[in-house]
Design a protein that fits this description.
The complex is a heterodimer of chains A (483) and B (81). Chain A has 483 residues and is mostly helical. Chain A folds into two domains: 184 residues, no CATH class; 275 residues, no CATH class. Chain A is 72% helix and 0% strand. Chain A contains 21 helices and no strands. In chain A, helix 1 runs antiparallel to helix 2 and helix 13 crosses helix 14. With 81 residues, chain B is mostly helical. Chain B has one domain: Non-ribosomal Peptide Synthetase Peptidyl Carrier Protein, Chain A. Chain B has four helices and no strands. In chain B, helix 1 crosses helix 2. Chain B is globular, with a radius of gyration of 11 Å. The chains are: A mainly alpha (483), B mainly alpha (81). At the A-B interface, helix 13, helix 14 and helix 16 of A face helix 2 and helix 3 of B.
């Protein structure tokens, strides 16, 4: 059930209406029931996987907290982590690893033993990964680590805990919510007020705009080109690489806006996931503004422990930790070498930016601020667009073919119908303008909240009309649902 | 060395390690979010710089549990006494 589907709207109206009527103390039961229904909607049996994770993590958390000795705590902790990571690896990476072993065996047979490459992968599993498995396990792992570090009390109410992991607005593609932010909201029982509902509706509207007018519009053009790269000129491929950054951002941040908006309507706050990343002046800054819930997760549980343990290496500690973190972060997206290359490229640029910090700072003093900032934003955008070519492609070879294609600066720009490019460009223009205004007033829709009621509602109406006029209504899935 | 002196020393350590254009002014309640350039990449350099300055060694657990500068000062205080 995707957010911009009729089925979801009916489902959500029922959930939200009853949620209003119910006494605050009982709301979590209703939200949990709705989340279970949401999860089971497509493939009912798959609910067993999150149930297993919830059980392991809930009981594990309590055991870690009350373990009498450090060694016992360690055993409980490691068991829970292994079960969580094991579940994730089994569903997401079995085929990748077994295929790699088989390819290796065949390579040896062909090149060293000179016999037929006849090894087949008998471990291939033909099941798809359960909904949101990466997000559920990551939140569970983070929760366990915080308990072990003594920063988080183990949740005693299994219902609250199950709702934390299964909560339907965020179960498929995040944010990777933190227990200390989410769980207390059940006991605080925030009142559902007009301000919250109004903020929620605005955020959903804005998310829909980004998804339907920008992402799904761009998707039509980009798919036409990238699914048939050999037929297109370098200019077209370059344009698509640029467009793909906007598609990805509009799709993922549009989804997140909707998730946060729907959640506000239910009286629960989710953490923000994006902070105008396209305005970042370096790739390092970009990763502080892009998919924030995941990058801070990797920072806290991956990067920091590695960098702290190796801190005597000086600068090498930062470089080593950056590479490992980003390669794993890339691989988290899926079992494909393309994602590993994507992660490697991020690690590489972060290292370069880290090592050239002083030089760049001295250079900055000699160049006017505006020029410097603009160059930074353009470089960051282009580098991210370049790395996303690997992210989007089916294989590393396919990605390299696109890059080779881009380097041939000839041919004409492919524009089958003008509206295919003009509509999304118009949408991108509005998005960038709104973000620029947001930056000035420091809140989403902040500029409008200070205007009179006529200006305010005209703006909401204009966005709604634009969605209806320019939006794609038979569009597809959100990109991040596959991770 | 009392807490105020530690805080003063930390101000210079932060300004140097973060290589910031303006002086860093910390209070006990300051968190990473309040200081320009204090992120997970620079956090580790800060830790190393603090350890060198005060000639102490933190445990991994300490480094990961500070919530603000005040808690960092408490850790330092406990080690230099």
């Amino acid at each position: 059930m995707i957010f911009n589907s009729i089925a979801f709207i009916i489902f959500f109206v029922i959930v939200a209406s009853l949620n209003y009527i119910l006494p605050a103390a009982l709301r979590w039961i209703w939200i949990l029931a709705a989340s279970i229904f949401f999860y089971m909607y497509v493939a009912p049996l798959y609910i067993l996987v999150p149930i297993f994770i919830i059980a392991v993590t809930y009981f594990g958390g309590i055991q870690i907290e009350k373990a009498a000795s450090a060694s016992k705590r360690r055993i409980f902790y490691l068991t829970c982590i292994i079960l969580n990571v094991g579940t994730l690896v089994f569903f997401k990476y079995t085929n990748f690893f077994t295929n790699m072993l088989v390819d290796f065996a065949n390579y040896i047979r062909q090149n060293l033993l000179h016999v037929e490459a006849s090894v087949h992968n008998i471990f291939l599993i033909s099941i798809f990964a359960p909904l949101g498995i990466s997000y559920i396990t990551f939140q569970a792992i983070g929760y366990l680590i915080e308990i072990k570090r003594g920063n988080q009390l183990a949740e005693k109410n299994i219902g609250y805990f199950a709702t934390y992991l299964l909560y339907f607005p965020k179960v498929i593609a995040g944010p990777v919510e933190r227990a200390h932010h989410f769980l207390p909201q059940f006991t605080l029982q925030k009142k559902l007020d007009f301000a919250g509902v109004s903020a929620g509706l605005k955020q959903i509207l804005w998310g829909l705009f980004k998804k339907l007018v920008i992402a799904d519009r761009l998707s039509i053009y980009i798919s036409t080109v990238f699914d048939n790269t050999a037929m297109h000129s370098g200019y077209t491929l370059a344009l698509c690489a640029i467009f793909y950054v906007f598609q990805m951002y509009a799709d993922f941040s549009g989804y997140t806006d909707m998730a946060l908006g729907f959640s506000k309507l239910l009286g629960l706050d989710l953490m923000p996931n994006f902070n105008r990343p396209l305005a970042a002046k370096s790739v390092t800054e970009f990763w502080r503004k892009w998919h924030i819930s995941l990058s801070t997760w990797f920072g806290d549980y991956f990067y920091n422990p590695i960098a702290i343990a190796k801190r005597d290496w000086g600068q090498w500690a930062v470089i080593y930790a950056s590479f490992i973190t980003f390669i794993v972060l890339g691989f988290w997206h899926g079992a494909n070498w393309t994602f590993i290359v994507f992660g490697f490229l991020q690690g590489a640029i972060l290292t370069i930016e880290f090592l050239t910090k002083k030089i760049r700072k001295n250079l900055r003093k000699k160049i006017p601020g505006a020029v410097n900032n603009t160059l930074g934003v353009i470089f960051t955008f282009c580098y991210f667009a370049f790395s996303l070519i690997f992210f989007r492609a089916n294989s590393v070879t396919a990605a390299l073919d696109i890059i080779k294609g881009i380097c041939h600066f000839k041919g004409s720009l492919f524009i089958p119908e003008q509206y295919m490019v003009l509509y999304p460009l118009f949408g991108i223009g509005i998005m960038l303008f709104v973000e620029w205004m947001e930056n000035r007033s420091h809140s989403a829709w902040g500029y409008f909240s200070h205007q009179n009621i006529i200006v305010r509602y005209s703006a909401y109406l204009a966005v709604s009309i634009l969605i209806l006029l320019l939006g794609v209504f038979d569009g597809g899935q959100f990109i991040y649902f596959q991770f | 060395m009392d807490r105020i002196e530690i805080l003063k020393t930390l101000n210079t350590v932060f300004t140097d390690a973060l290589d910031s254009d303006e002086d860093v002014i910390l209070t006990e309640g300051t968190t990473a979010a309040d200081v320009n350039g204090w992120d997970s990449l620079t956090h580790i350099q800060l830790v190393v710089a603090i350890e060198k300055k005060f000639k102490i060694r933190f445990t991994s657990k300490e480094i990961q549990t500070w919530k603000n500068v005040g808690e960092l000062i408490t850790s330092i205080e406990g080690k230099i006494k």
